[in-house]
Write a structure and sequence with these properties.
The chain is an alpha/beta fold. It has 17 helices and 17 strands. Helix content is about 40%, strand content about 25%. Helix 4 packs across helix 5 (about 135-145) and helix 5 runs parallel beside helix 6 (about 170-185). The structure holds guanine and zinc ion. Catalyzes the hydrolytic deamination of guanine, producing xanthine and ammonia.
Length: about 425
């Protein structure tokens, strides 16, 4: 049993008013045992109640729930920061050639390790991850995550047209391979599976139908894909699916719009698509660094609020330009400034912790520091360098600390990342749970 001493911030419940419902405990204590949170309260109280716990002292730092990155691509780790294109030519010129390398299992295993190390050093303890089309690529990630009991959601990308032939599966193999992976990994330890059609243009109607059938067979698995990211993409979807009422309707026709369906982007949506996302309880993943990098557009957080649609923040690496969820909120703030409706730090923090967990129906385990939740948390250091030491006063309130670290910080602000009760990343010692 361990007692971690620090200032503590989290959202114990679902909320539409994060600034009112945040729980802040100055000089707090988090008691953990066997990978699970036992208690969270002022340090003096828990110290008296759990005298047997060994104390880990992070006084002056902030302890927050591990971050949830709700959409990213692990085979794109090595093609991050590739110059000069918008979505469709970027996919052709950088993404597909890189994903091709993942037919080699050894390569997939190597990059899975790099990828998880990047998540951990940035304080991310859960990711919603696209693998490549190769079943073994998805296996490699689950295997690596399983070794450290990390809660990862992943899926084999399915695509059977409009991409290089050697990267195509087919309707039957996509269903069969996805079903095999569900049976092997979904709910095994902390792993969860996501049925993953890449996006409407790269799946035939036959493949959509076979994946929709699978989704009905497994009502609790996640679904992840892309939606309305780029105007050329949307026009292409219209020509490929002339009978669909909208882009979202392509997925809806095949029963893939539902709770635990996570749609990357959703920048250019029509009224009826917003309505349908609300009615079904699906989630939009807001990926600001990616949207700016590919010139895709400005996500409308205010509309999502008005329409009461779940939103979760995400990096979308490798179109996203950083693994840091702090930086991701920093860019979400800048996007929202251009829309004249700034996303405040409470909302930003919510969208990468409890808000994401609630959207994904997973708040019994992740996203918060409630007793019984998994001990997945991050220690943030407000004074990681000269500039943040100058800017962030020792008694600065959490919203100011979080905002300044999101604008000025990145992985350098993360002192430690704990997964399932174990410290898996320690900046000072530069140690990782993995090699
Ligand atoms: N749309 C289809 N595939 C992708 C991808 O890999 N990245 C992004 N950002 N959008 C996509
Ligand atoms: Zn993506």
């Amino acid at each position: 049993m361990q007692l971690i001493r620090a200032n503590i911030a989290h959202f114990p419940t679902a909320t539409k008013q994060p600034e009112q419902d945040i729980s802040i405990i100055l000089d707090g204590g988090l008691v953990i045992d066997n990978g699970t949170i036992v208690a969270v309260a002022p340090f003096n109280e828990v110290n008296a109640s759990f005298p047997q716990a060994s104390i880990v002292d992070h006084s002056g730092k902030w302890l927050v729930p591990g971050f949830i990155d709700s959409h990213l691509h692990y085979p794109q780790t090595q093609s991050i920061a590739s110059y000069g294109e918008q979505l469709l030519s970027w996919l052709e010129n950088y993404t597909f050639p890189t994903e091709r390398l993942f037919s080699e299992t050894a390569h997939a295993s190597d990059i899975a390790q790099v990828f998880l190390r990047q998540l951990l050093k940035n304080g991310t303890t859960t990711g919603f991850v696209f693998s490549s089309v190769h079943k073994t690529c998805c296996d490699a990630l689950f295997t690596a995550a399983n070794e450290i009991n990390m809660a990862i959601v992943a899926g084999k990308v399915c695509m059977d047209r409009n991409c290089p032939e050697d990267l195509q599966d087919c309707a039957d193999s996509a269903q069969r391979d996805s079903a095999d992976l569900i049976e092997k990994w979904h709910n095994k330890g902390r792993n969860r599976y996501a049925i993953t059609p890449r996006f409407a243009p790269t799946s035939t109607e036959a493949q959509m139908a076979s994946l929709g059938e699978l989704a009905c067979q497994y009502p609790d698995v996640f679904i992840q894909t892309h939606l309305s990211e780029n105007l050329d993409e949307i026009a292409w979807v219209k020509s490929l699916y002339p009978n669909a009422k909208s882009y979202l309707d392509v997925y809806d026709t095949y029963n893939m719009v539902r709770p635990r369906a996570v749609f990357g982007h959703g920048i250019h949506l029509h009224e009826e698509e917003w309505q349908r996302l609300h009615d079904t309880g699906a989630t939009l993943a807001f990926c600001p660094t990616s949207n700016l990098f590919l010139g895709s557009g400005l996500f409308d957080r205010e509309m999502a609020k008005q329409q009461d649609v779940h939103v979760a923040l995400a990096t979308d690496v490798g179109a996203g330009t950083s693994f840091s969820m702090l930086k991701t909120y920093g860019d979400a703030y800048k996007v929202s400034q251009l829309r004249h409706a700034p996303i405040n730090p409470y909302d930003g923090f919510y969208l990468m912790t409890q808000g994401a967990a609630v959207a994904h129906k997973w708040e019994n385990e992740i996203g918060n520091l409630n007793p019984q939740s998994a001990a997945d948390f991050v220690i943030l250091d407000p004074h990681f360098d000269e500039l943040t030491s100058l800017r962030i006063k020792p008694d600065a309130p959490f919203d100011d600390v979080f905002f300044a670290l999101s604008i000025l910080g990145d992985d350098r602000a993360v002192s430690e990342t704990w997964v399932n009760g174990h410290c898996c990343y320690n900046k000072k010692e530069l140690t990782h749970a993995m090699v």
